């Protein structure tokens, strides 16, 4: 029994030493991460994009399509429209877990999705307007100052079916700047009911793209 206090003392010293060493390792790892970020900033390198790869690729594609070198040449523009329409049909049928911020929920028929304007009743829907938070500028009243893409999801005011009713119940709880995670598809319909993004190449306004939701949840 005489050895017990000594044993406890040695044990406590050992545990303390291990904990101290672990803290040093954690601190060293954190310092390494901060150092890497500082080096990347000094070199002018971009920090890794945390968004899903297909989401990041989509916004890079939009930026490329909006370039003046494309829109200022009619022949080049037509070729890009054909390519982008194919890209939309091939690549955007099933988006998964994209992160958006809420701009507003309104019932303005002019804000309804192109699909509803062409094939439905734009006066009988609520419009959920979303943007992707690529860059936030807190010095002005903007939640996505560098983003030239708006998204709209139009849902009937009196939906039929449990899935739509559940979506509407959630939408009713949303306010500006809420963050939502969505899955579904993106599209834009022309007045003939065909997928066609041509109108966006002839304007300097943000692209206003239809969001067809299969799921939505608050972050």
Gyration radius (Cα, Å) is 25 Å
Q: Could you give the order of the helices and strands?
A: HHHHEHEEHEE
**Structural class by secondary-structure content:** alpha+beta
Strand order of the largest sheet: 1-2-3-5-4
Number of helices: 6
**Gap between N and C termini, in Å?**
57 Å
State the total count of DSSP E strands: 5
| Uncertain residue segments | 7-11
Helix content: 40-55%
Major sheet size, sense and barrel closure: 5 strands, mixed, barrel
Oligomer: single chain
Mean pLDDT: 81
Strand percentage lies at 15-25%
Shape: globular
Written account of the structure:
It is a single chain. This protein has helices at 3-42, 53-65, 68-71, 74-91, 114-119, 162-171, and strands spanning 95-106, 125-131, 149-156, 179-187, 207-218. With 219 residues, the protein is an alpha+beta fold. It has a 5-stranded mixed beta barrel with strand order 1-2-3-5-4. The N and C termini lie far apart (57 Å). It comes from Mucilaginibacter dorajii.
Give the arrangement of secondary structure elements.
Elements: H1 3-42, H2 53-65, H3 68-71, H4 74-91, E1 95-106, H5 114-119, E2 125-131, E3 149-156, H6 162-171, E4 179-187, E5 207-218
Parallel strand pairs: 3-5
Antiparallel strand pairs: 1-2, 1-4, 2-3, 4-5
Protein name: Lipoprotein
Organism: Mucilaginibacter dorajii
Distinctive features:
219 residues; globular; 42% helix; 5-stranded mixed β-barrel; 6 helices; alpha+beta
């Amino acid at each position: 029994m005489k050895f017990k206090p000594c044993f406890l003392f040695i044990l406590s010293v050992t545990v303390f030493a291990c904990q101290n060493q672990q803290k040093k390792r954690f601190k060293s790892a954190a310092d390494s991460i901060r150092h890497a970020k500082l080096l990347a900033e000094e070199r002018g390198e971009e920090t890794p994009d945390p968004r899903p790869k297909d989401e990041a690729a989509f916004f890079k594609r939009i930026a490329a399509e909006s370039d003046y070198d494309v829109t200022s040449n009619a022949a080049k523009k037509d070729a890009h429209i054909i390519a982008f329409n194919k890209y939309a049909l091939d690549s955007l049928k099933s988006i998964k877990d994209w992160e958006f911020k809420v701009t507003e929920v309104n019932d303005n028929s002019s804000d309804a999705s192109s699909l509803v304007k062409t094939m439905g009743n734009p006066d009988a829907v609520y419009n959920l307007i979303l943007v992707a938070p690529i860059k936030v500028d807190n010095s002005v009243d903007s939640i996505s100052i560098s983003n030239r893409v708006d998204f709209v999801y139009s849902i009937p005011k009196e939906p039929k079916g449990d899935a739509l009713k559940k979506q509407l119940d959630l939408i009713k709880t949303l306010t500006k700047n809420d963050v939502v995670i969505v899955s579904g598809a993106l599209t834009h319909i022309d007045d003939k009911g065909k997928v066609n993004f041509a109108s966006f190449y002839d304007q300097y306004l943000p692209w206003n793209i239809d969001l067809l939701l299969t799921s939505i949840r608050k972050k």
